Amino acid sequence: MSESTEMYLESILVIQKRKGVVRSIDIAHELNFSKPTISQQIKRLKSLDYINVNEHNIISLTDKGMEIASMIYERHNELSRIFRYIGIPEDVATEDACRVEHYISPETFEALKNYFDPLINKK
Question: Where are the annotated coiled coils located (predicted)?
Fold first, then answer.
């Protein structure tokens, strides 16, 4: 799975949570990419069965796409929280979480989460 694919799927999930519906222009604004670039990626994601696009051009995640998007979204939130807990400024924590969320192994992520959750929740 490429970082790009994960980023698109996570962005669709975030926009859906924020706005309720997702259109390609929303993704273009969210990611600061051109409409033609987004259109290419939408076709690719659809061909991989990660998204559906209805007759009104509303984009939704398939079960397969939602599984990946939810995993990346959880990683982002948890890593941001851990980074802030250890004293990283919020803007840096968020930016670093965006990078790390795509490369961290499931084992390392779970170990970090299990280690820091009790500490953060106790605070």
Answer: none
